[in-house]
Every structure is written in structure tokens, then in C-alpha cells.
Amino acid sequence: MTPEERDAFFTVHRDLPREGPGEAADVHWAVTQLGLEGSLDVLDAACGPGADTLVLAEALPEASITAMEKTPHFVSETRARIAQLGPRVRAVEGDMAQPGGPYDLIWCAGALYFLGVTSGLQGWRDALKPGGAVVFSEPVLLNTPPNDAVCAFWEEYPQITDLAGITAQVTAAGYTGQAHRMIVGAPWEAYYTPMQARIDMLRTQSPDAVLTAALDENQREIDRWRAAPDQVAYALLIVTPE
């Protein structure tokens, strides 16, 4: 990706509520499943614009929360979003491959695949406190073999697998799966509806060729999701080191 293409991509993705499918209920589900409370240390790895950071702070009102993101303008958006929460919640520019810690919880929504499930979890083992957990979402096939619409949506992620395949990667990292839930339907609509509105707005501003290409690419993604909204999914998994 050229610098111009990168700028165009982030122009499309600027000022969106979140950078991937999900909803507040996902965070609350994980917190409830793990029985989390008190003065915990929490990392929101690859936090994007901070949608889940805010929910983590609300769900864990005594926790110290670090939101980590390598894209500077997402760090700025997160800081603006959490400004009213005070010093216990902070946003830092950094690489989730070097998370620091240790943490009671590492939350990672739709980004662990950049490191690879197995290698990413292995790299995070030393960043967890004893008894700590990782909660992450990962693209998943609900049915195998997938239909043509699902194949088209995931064509740029050929390593996608079903839940059993993700579980095998978790096991290979030396972790045990504790619980999971599927992210399908409404959480994706919540992601794509604001993006559609931004695409439509940017098209009214006489975009140049590079930005037009980025708008077209993101529109294709939305259209492909709309062709199979009940089949395109993430799995949200709670895992702990063995």
C-alpha cells in the first residue's frame, strides 16, 4: 500500500464508532463469564477508536485500563472518547506484539489475526498475571464448505477456519478455551451502517482517483457482507494459559 493509498484508507475509516463488528454486549458477556471485578489491570489491544475501551471502563469501574493502538489518529480518537474517565483509563501508541503488562485481562477485538492466533497468544503469555485471560475475536466459518458469498467476503483471509480450527490454534499456543459466542448479524450492521454513511458523504466531495478507489473497495466489502449477513461471522473466545 502506497502512502497515498494508506491515507485514503484512513480517510474512509476516520471518525467511525468502531473499526470492526461488535457491540457492548460482547464485553459485558466476557466480564460476566470471567467474574471480573475490582482493581484489575486490563489491556485493550489494537483498540481502534476506543469503542470497547469505553465499555470495558464502564463494565469494570475500578480497573486500570490501557488502550493500545499503533495508528496515531485512532489513539487521538480514543483519548477524546475516554477523556471524562480520568487517569485510570489511558490510550497509548504502541504495538500489541509488545503489550507490556502484566494484565488480568487482554481484550482484542478483531485484530489478533494480524499476529496469528497461535503466535499472538504465545507472545502474550508473559503479559498475563497468574489467572489472567485473553478474550479475542477471530473470523470464523459457520458452515463448511462455505457458500460462494462467504468465500467472496473472506477472499483476502484464506486462512479462515471454523470454530474447531480456531480451537486447535488456541491449543497449539498452550491455552484452553473457556467459552465462546458468535458475532453475527446486528454487530456487523452496527459497523457497516456508519461506514456506508461516510462513503456516501465522501463521494459528494469530489474525491480524487486514489480516494475513489478506497471508497469503491470499502463499498465492495459492505456489499459482500450484505449478500450473506447471516453467514459472515467472528467468534469471540475466552481463553486462558494452561
UniProtKB/TrEMBL annotation:
- Provide this UniProt record's keywords sorted from A to Z: Methyltransferase, Transferase
Which Pfam families is this protein grouped with?
Methyltransf_25
Report the Gene3D superfamilies cross-referenced here.
Vaccinia Virus protein VP39
Is Glycoprotein found in the keyword set? no
- So which residues are the signal peptide here? none
Q: Which residues form the Methyltransferase domain?
A: 42-132
Protein name from the UniProt record: Trans-aconitate 2-methyltransferase
